[in-house]
Amino acid sequence: MKKLILAAVMFIATSASIQAQFLKVGVKAGVNFANQTGDASFSGINYSKDGITSYHAGLIAEVKLLEKFSIQPELLYSTQGASYKNALGEFKNELGYIAIPVMAKIYVTKSLSLEVGPQASFLVSNKKEFDVQDPKTFDFAINAGLGLKITEGIFIQGRYGFGLTEVSSKADLKNSVFQLSAGIMLF
User: Fold this and answer.
1) How far is CA 100 from CA 78, 123, 135, 160, in A?
2) DSSP character for 169?
3) Residues of the signal sequence (predicted)?
């Protein structure tokens, strides 16, 4: 009986050790330099647009599939949008999304990785200083960037997200965002 218990404990310990090598979970946060590409005219009035600085934060996981290849799903809260102005004034359109990027990570070296993948985002808040005319609640983008492990648990990332869907049914605008992140793998 003691041998059976010892074997079970050894099996569980070995499985946990193997699992820890293939799956890592952590948190990350950072700054967004966001803008919206496309035609900036609302109700026939043209506006010039500028980017806004905002933030993102959330959970991250890394699933190691091969020696130099991992899949990195994330669950983030990310704010995006732009600032618009014309002769009458200036206003800001800030959209808050729950973003779900799924990145393929290719390790160039032990600590440097190339990252590319799709991102689905769901609108959860709209802090607007004007009526953007019914923003769409779903946004799809393609992301590409670099990641750098500073230590085994601490990392930094730089990423550009190029929106493929329009943010409003009334305007030809798409989100674009450059993100700088820092994070830590907790286990």
Assistant:
1) 10, 12, 19, 15
2) S
3) 1-20
- Choose among 181, 54, 171, 9: nearest CA to 1: 9
Is the backbone of residue 5 left (phi > 0), alpha (psi -120 to 50) or beta? alpha
What tens digit of pLDDT does each residue of 103-138 get? Answer: 999 999 999 999 999 999 999 998 765 555 567 889
> d(Cα 100, Cα 5) in Å, to the nearest integer?
42
Q: Model confidence over 59-84: pLDDT tens digits?
A: 999 999 999 999 999 999 999 988 88
Class of the domain covering 24-185: mainly beta
Tell me the pTM: 0.82
Question: Does an H or E element contain 27, and which?
Answer: strand 23-38
Query: What is the chain's percent helix, strand, coil content, to nearest 5?
Result: 10, 70, 20
pLDDT at residue 8, rounded to an integer: 46
The domain segmentation of the chain, as residue ranges, is: 24-185
What residues have CB less than 8 Å from 107, skipping those under 6 apart? 67, 68, 69, 70, 113
The pair of structure tokens assigned to 117 is 């993948």
